[in-house]
Amino acid sequence: MDPPDLSSITVLVDLELKRLEDSRREQGWTPWILLAALAALSWQLVEYVAASPHWQGVGLYWSILIVVGLTVESMIDLLNSNEGPRRPGLRYFRLNLFAAGRSARLFAALKIGGAAVLLCWLTPLSGLIKGAWLVLFGYYVYVLFAHVAGSWTDFPHPVGTMPQGKKYSWLIPVLVWILHLSLVVTAMVGLWPRLVASYNVADAQVALLGFAVAHLSSLLLGFRANEPLRQELIHLRRVIGLGELAAEQAQQKLFELLYGSELLVLLRPRFEMVEQNLEGCASLHGKAEAALRVLAHGDGPRSEAMAGIKEAEERFDAAECEWVALHVRVVVCRLIGGVPEDVSTWHAALKSRIAAEEDKLKAFRAAIKNLPRGDDEDD
User: Fold this and answer.
1) Quick count: other Cβ atoms within 10 Å of Cβ 271?
2) In this structure, what are the phi and psi dihedrals at residue 50, rounded to the nearest 5 degrees?
3) Pick from 61, 126, 325, 377: CA 20 to 30 A from residue 315's CA?
4) How many helices (H) and strands (E) does the chain have?
5) DSSP 3-state assignment of 156?
6) What is the CA 46 to chain-centroid distance, rounded?
7) What is the DSSP letter of 168?
8) Residue 57 half-sphere exposure, CB side, CA atoms within 13 Å?
């Protein structure tokens, strides 16, 4: 295989930038068109609202439109989904690469949550079905809020194929989809007689306009969702042009932007930080052990051993804080995607070292308590 050259990598970066620009306009939308459509619909909506519609009817129609719209959109996405060429194995992106989609996800969470609450409040469905609605839509809202919260952090986000060990990883999404579809069908069958008997054109018009405004608002908020990736590609194009990157480095950077990174690459700085603090803590143990041996023979002040233990405890606390942050990320990755063997091995080794260092500190504290106290020594 021939080594990469900067000219071919530059062409690839330009192609990806063009692809992002084309994907923004593939359906004909631009921010200005969306703003104009929102303004026109909002003006119409104000006129209809001035007619004092029945707000319970409007809320019921609007919540049904949101639920049915979400179902139809999900079905279309499912039917049209086509996995493109993908690198084998599980890879991860940093969640902060999705930072531009925060407002769209927050708006979607509020829209879905509002529709679920209105549907449960305004419908005569049984308590079991209402509870299932709240659980299902609560799960949707939780996922959206978790994604938004994670976008402020460096939490990895999985893409690609699942590990072979997880044979039934597809089961949860399928069960959620079956529950969603069955609840929608049950709700529509139960509500249909009431909708026919109490149908009001003015209320339906307000609900339709509200639904259209909400949908266009979602499109507008999500229009720049790929902006962080675009900015990363522009920066890569610039540093290549300025000669600040070698061809191999530029190729690796482009590959990670497009296909994601191995989990170990993303978590390596945290692993190394924990190891650095643990090594510092272990080096201080020797100092503390020497002080304890001197004290055991009745020589030297007690404060020397206490100072060594205190310094070791401070380094251990720093290591433990870094370990907790690392452990949370590994656990989340294991739940939502999978953890490769190299990360699991390193994680298990650090877990054992943390436990061993904690046991050493406990032993030092117990040894100091058992030392004879001098009359002129402080605690």
Assistant:
1) 19
2) -60, -20
3) 377
4) 12, 2
5) strand
6) 37
7) T
8) 17
Letter for the amino acid at 282? A
**What are residue 31's DSSP bridge partners?**
none
Tokens of 348: 């298990």
- Cβ contact 210:45 at 8 Å: yes
Residues 10 and 254: their CA atoms lie apart, in Å, by 10
Name the β-bridge partners of 127: none
pLDDT tens for the 379 residues of the chain, in order: 566 788 888 888 888 888 888 877 766 778 888 899 999 998 988 888 877 778 888 888 888 888 888 888 877 776 665 555 455 567 788 777 777 678 888 888 888 888 888 877 877 766 777 777 777 778 778 777 777 777 777 778 776 544 444 555 556 667 777 777 777 777 777 677 777 677 788 888 888 999 999 989 988 888 877 788 888 889 988 988 888 888 888 888 888 888 888 888 888 988 998 888 888 877 776 666 766 666 666 555 556 556 666 777 777 788 888 888 888 888 888 877 778 888 889 999 988 988 888 887 777 777 766 665 554 444 4
Provide Rg for the chain, Cα atoms: 29
Q: Which helix (H) or strand (E) holds 297?
A: none
